[in-house]
């Protein structure tokens, strides 16, 4: 058998295996259970302290600053709050700024990244609520379909550990690679790839640079917020992830501030019909975001 024919046969077997994974195994991997976060019933008026009314909100490029200002802040303003966005150009700075007290909350990261980052840097930060989130996707300027993927394709992906592993999981679900089923895929590394029929070459990059460098690679795995801020259309992705529960973005505060009234007021806004009406407005980009289970709490 020629090398070309053998390679074709290998790909056919891999495709059949991938279909089996998608149909029978992936539904078990993508749990939609709700993350345990504070709720309105967890707060008692006598336990609450502070009178903070001006909020500094840390964000990175993407839609979540807009979500705060359009879907959350208008209703906080009715409670006499004022707010300002503080912009950062990468994922590291908003958590450091929050821990240092330079901002009061941030809204940019998923639950898994927050937990990984705060333990790595010994920060006392807490998530207070999930929000509708745009998914990670696989993009290309040169390919119309993943079926057009050439041999030894260059694939860029985020270089931070959490999103690197997330990108590998996405590439596996798209049928491009296979990861070792014996490893914890949330911590997957390049060495955990056990099947790579296309011979793709993985090239880690800073997450916020992936849109700008898209033309330099055959494929790029890009976080949704950076895809949107970079002018990409989510519907143009060759493949989009289905968000697992702890990949929904969250609002984070300092753990010591959990008893602050502004935390409860934000949670109340996120449980309100007015907030949901903004998110579900078909004229806004948030309408196409994936929604966590708690988004539907209290709806008839």
Could you characterize the architecture of this molecule?
The protein has 300 residues and is an alpha/beta fold. The chain folds into two domains: 40-133 and 246-296, D-Maltodextrin-Binding Protein, domain 2; 135-242, 3-Layer(aba) Sandwich (D-Maltodextrin-Binding Protein, domain 2), CATH 3.40.190.10. The chain has eight helices and twelve strands. The protein has helices at 3-29, 64-77, 93-100, 111-120, 161-173, 224-229, 261-270, 273-279; strands at residues 54-59, 82-87, 105-110, 125-130, 137-139, 154-158, 178-179, 193-195, 201-205, 219-222, 239-240, 249-254. It has a five-stranded mixed sheet with strand order 2-1-3-12-4, sandwiched between helices. Mean pLDDT is 87; it is low at 12-33.
Summarize the structure in short.
By secondary structure, the chain is an alpha/beta fold. 32% of the residues lie in helices and 18% in strands.
Please identify, by name, the CATH architecture of the largest domain: 3-Layer(aba) Sandwich
Q: Could you tell me the CATH topology label of the largest domain.
A: D-Maltodextrin-Binding Protein, domain 2
| Alpha plus pi helix count | 8
User: Can you list the strand order of the major beta sheet?
Assistant: 2-1-3-12-4
CATH class assignment of the largest domain: Alpha Beta
